[in-house]
Amino acid sequence: MFSDLTKMVTMQNLFHDGGFSYTGVTQGVIDRMASE
After folding, report:
1. Per-residue pLDDT, 16
2. What does the domain layout of the chain look like in residue ranges?
């Protein structure tokens, strides 16, 4: 589950943000995992 979620968010943010995506992905995954 963690791998799939990370991959999904990573792909979305890479297309949208480019260089900034890595930070966004990391924080986004942490927030999602924390809420669940």
Report:
1. 59
2. 4-35
